[in-house]
Amino acid sequence: MRMRYVLVSLLLVILSLGSVHAQTTGGDLLIESLTASPGDSVRGRSIVASRQTGLCLLCHSGPFPEERFQGNLAPDLTVSAGRLTTSQLRARIIDASRFNSGTIMPTYYKAQNLQRVAPKFIGQSILNEQEIEDVVAFLASLNKQSMQ
């Protein structure tokens, strides 16, 4: 019985190390900003809260007391922002499928080699470079707020 607990504990440690490695590997992760100008957290907040642009609140919840009907399919944005660096946030917004092949989160910037895309949207990204940086700035600001 004790051996079973040791094996389960060892397996959990190995699995958690694998997920940490997946979050920090340089490889082809996008670490640098997409634009020369910094993101604007106020614009980023409006993109995240928008039911037409970002659509983030369909799945996520967050610090949006004015928004009713926030999602519960994905982590609260404050929690996600609190555990990821700016580079990791950017990489997940650009293409979350790199970290979880079964994710339902859309690729907000990737526009090539996608499946099940309406013909009029082929080759188009959901957000442009500046909008990505604005969203990253907003999410990074949540991380700073949670540390205070």
Short summary:
It is built from five helices and no strands. The protein has helices at residues 2-24, 41-49, 77-83, 86-95, 129-147.
Classify the beta-strand content into a percent band: under 5%
Low-confidence stretches: 10-28
In round numbers, the mean pLDDT is 79
Coarse structural class: mainly alpha
| Number of strand segments | 0
Label the overall shape. globular
Order of helices and strands: HHHHH
Oligomer: single chain
Count of discrete alpha- or pi-helical segments spanning 4 or more residues:
5
Helix content: 40-55%
C-alpha end-to-end distance: 44 Å
CA radius of gyration is: 17 Å
Largest beta sheet, briefly?
none
Write up what this structure looks like.
The chain has 148 residues and is mostly helical. The protein is built from 5 helices and no strands. α2 packs across α5 and α4 crosses α5. The longest helix has 23 residues. It is globular.
Task: Looking at this protein, list some descriptive labels.
148 residues; mainly alpha; 5 helices; 46% helix
Write the layout of secondary structure elements.
Elements: H1 2-24, H2 41-49, H3 77-83, H4 86-95, H5 129-147
